[in-house]
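Sync notes, pocket subgroup
Present: LS, DG
LS reminded everyone that the earlier model was apo-only. Rerun requested with adenosine monophosphate included. Inputs:
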Amino acid sequence: MPYSKLVKPDSKVMLKEINPSKTDGLDKAAAEEKLVKLGEKLRELQELHFAAGENPLLLVLQGCDTSGKDGTIRNIMKFMNPQSTRVASFKVPTPIEAAHDFLWRTHQQTPGKGETVIFNRSHYEDVLIVRVHDLVEKDVWQKRYETINEFEESLVESGTIVLKFYLYISKDEQEKRLLARQQDPRKAWKLNVGDWKERELWKDYIEAYEDALGKCSTKKAPWHIVPANEKWFRDLAVVETIHDALKPYEESWRAKLEAIGAKALADIAAYEKGR
Ligand code: AMP
Ligand code: MG
């Protein structure tokens, strides 16, 4: 069984049925050992992905404040070539962004062939915070699930590999993390009174997440729920999911590179013959 939970298309997600502290019997040391091994395999696959230049790779990270989006990015980046990878962070829309349709800023950040882009938050904020805070009318955000599915489908049709991760922590774990930040002067810069205010809306966010996960997990652009109370398990789950999604492409990427290599060798041989 994979460490993260794949959300079946058109399903009703009930987050309370999922254990955010799940570790599948692993302890930290065992998980870290597995992470290093799997990470090395991912590094090789991601390098092939880059060199072959056939498919864009889009990794979407969502989760509440303190769910570990930044830490996950730092840890998965260790296994990725910085030349082919970048992070796009989505904040409160700027006036220019807000003057456009909600996917405008998203589409500008999607990866090109061979490129990997990690979304730190994403267009899903437009059915999460926007819904929870009534930033637009209900009939506006309600239509967005379908719009998002069509948008992601069009990315997949042009070769993009789309993987979406919801980092799921419990409400208690969030409290622990917020208090830890308050007690550690080195982490206080991450604090924001807004985090405590958002926390009061926990239930609304869970509902909004359940809808987004259920309505927008498609066969082509699936959502994965990552048990994220234990950071070491979270990282292992994300790396495993990316690795498993890239693996089926390995053969065709290698074949493409072999063909390019064979052509280069033939060109050189012809050049040497003619000298
Ligand atoms: P952070 O991830 O802590 O840097 O915070 C970014 C903030 O921007 C979060 O509170 C997000 O919910 C918020 N945000 C991102 N996208 C949108 C959006 N489309 N509309 C409103 N707020 C957003
Ligand atoms: Mg924040």
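DG: Residues 70 and 120 are 8 Å apart (CA to CA).
LS: The chain has a mean pLDDT of 97.
Action: DG to write up.
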